[in-house]
Amino acid sequence: MLSVFKDLIRYNREFTIGLLLVSLIVIFACLSFFSPYPAQDIYVVIPDQPPSWQYWFGTNSRGQDLFWQLSFAFRNTLTFGIIVAVLSRLISITIGLASGYLGGWVDRILMFFNDIFVAIPIFPILILFYFVLRSDLNTYTLAVIMACLGWAFDARLIRSVALGLRFREFTRQAIFAGMSPRKIMMEEHLPYVMPIVFSTAMANMIWSIGFEVTLAVLGFTNINIPTVGTALYWANNHSAMVVGVWWWIIIPVVLLVMMFLGLFLLAVSINEYIDPRSRLRRMGS
Amino acid sequence: MRAYLLFALKRLLQLTAVVFAGVSAAFFISRLSPISPVESIIGRVSGNSSFSPQAIESLRSTLNELFGLNIPLHEQYFNFLGRLIVGDLGPSLIAFPTPAMQLVMLALPWTVGLLTVSIIITWLLGNILGGLAGYYQNSRLLKAFGVLAIGVQPIPYYIVAFLMVIIFGFLWPVLPISGGFSMNVRPGWTPQFILSILHHSILPATSLVLVGMGTWFLGMRSLVSNIVTEDYVTYAEIAGVKEERIVGSYVIRNALVPQLTALAMALGGIFSGTIITEQVFSYPGLGTLLIRAVNGGDSTLVLAVSSVAVIAVASAIFVIDMIHPLLDPRVKVE
């Protein structure tokens, strides 16, 4: 595991940049544990101060220090992304491996549902959930809903790998040795799909955080919980761009783009590492 | 031909299943809502005038009947399915008593138009450029384009659209940033009106193209860079086949097939992106309507928009799947 990591850093510039960007954001998010102000308090500092030595990211029109506010926001957003990624990975691993290994009618039924989930447009459904739950739609509820909607694409990917493993020598040996299907899937096949699980986890985080930001910006989540989306929501709500408080919008957007770019580079470089052809090309050159 | 028909039949079955599942989910989620359309209309009507309790009671029962809420849930569900087929979901709340479906049908052409044009541009441009970048791997320009694609691709629609509003609305105001057409133009099939529509659609369409193109570019580039190492390409090169022919018919055409499948799979997400883009640019499409409906607490309209969205996306996927065998003669049956 560690040597893979070293290889990636040595031969893959994208991975290094991605790792750097994501680490920066994670450190920034962790700073929120040392915040001098509680996350939801307003009018704790002078409003509308531009970035300065005292307020690194400036302050917003609600009298919050943007530095600490955004670090809370990124903590919540990252937590949300990780919860969605972990939950949806669990679902897609289970479905993908079962479908690929068991085959037959199990495969056909699971993939039938899979195709339905892939095809349904998610955004109207999410808005429908907001319509019903209103401000009960907090980070955790939304994470569970997103996880239930976001597993399908990756389950198909995992299935395609598991399908290839099914007729390999070691699988047959495991069956003859009397391993139960569950054990074969979990102990023999799972390691093979783990790289895919990692790279799709990053892509999944981009996907889910993108939706979260969008919903929050439109005001369609609990807007009192600081996330990156709600930060932008309040900035729009106070017409930050029009009254000239540009740092309220530009800084979160820049940080957000850094995070997305970092996650994306990680996903791409891990993906490339999985494919031996492109890995060889990179190491040779 | 028989195989193609079988393939089409299978896809049609799948289309029905997707529509059925999506529409049913939309119905049951919307019925969980604590806001009753009936009570909110009564609240609005009786807000600043006094009615006798009997009058309100009879209003309530009339409205319950109008919205079809006076029967058990499962009957409501079957009613809903039946009425969806004939395209009548009852009156909307934000524009009471205009039928919800009428509002949806007014908004639908805008979304479909914007979506179709931007998808076609995005997909073709992204794939052609990506294909060229995969084939000519040493081109500086295409390499720079690749870096740009990586940079823009992971940013969500909302942020890109929003940045474009800031740039073209505040910093360099040259393009209209809101609405579907100018206020002073009368809607109709006049050149003036069509030009106005095109002028207003530049920004939303460009933002969709910008975000979407990266995915196709990167996907196509990696597909093509794998294909060019195949023996048949090397053989064609040695045999002296014209370069354009190799790139166009041998390499890109082959790689387009998985990209078409990917398009079908990505369509739901692209549709979601359009909804957001519309909201940012106040474009008069389904997205804006959906958000107005949510803010107005209009459950009928929300349900109508969601159902139509599910049907539209599923049908579009079906159409793409039907094109598939035409592009790739090998795929007669899956």
From TrEMBL, chain A:
- Record's keyword terms, sorted: Membrane, Transmembrane, Transmembrane helix, Transport
Gene Ontology annotations of biological process type? transmembrane transport
Segments forming domain ABC transmembrane type-1: 74-267
Q: Which residues cross the membrane?
A: 15-34, 78-102, 109-133, 139-158, 192-225, 245-274
Where can this protein be found?
A: Cell membrane
Xref: PROSITE patterns: ABC_TM1, PROKAR_LIPOPROTEIN
Q: Name one Pfam family in it.
A: BPD_transp_1
User: What topology does the record note for this protein and the membrane?
Assistant: Multi-pass membrane protein
Cited InterPro entries: MetI-like, MetI-like_sf
GO cellular component terms, semicolon-separated:
plasma membrane
Q: Which family does it belong to?
A: Belongs to the binding-protein-dependent transport system permease family.
Q: What name is this protein filed under?
A: Peptide ABC transporter
Automatic annotation (TrEMBL), chain B:
Q: How does it sit in the membrane?
A: Multi-pass membrane protein
Keywords for this protein = Membrane, Transmembrane, Transmembrane helix, Transport
Coiled-coil ranges (or none):
none
Q: Where is the ABC transmembrane type-1 domain?
A: 108-320
The signal sequence is: none
Query: What protein is this chain from?
Result: ABC transporter permease
The taxonomy runs: Bacteria, Pseudomonadati, Pseudomonadota, Alphaproteobacteria, Hyphomicrobiales
Residues crossing the lipid bilayer are 12-30, 110-136, 157-177, 197-218, 260-281, 301-320
Has keyword Transport? yes
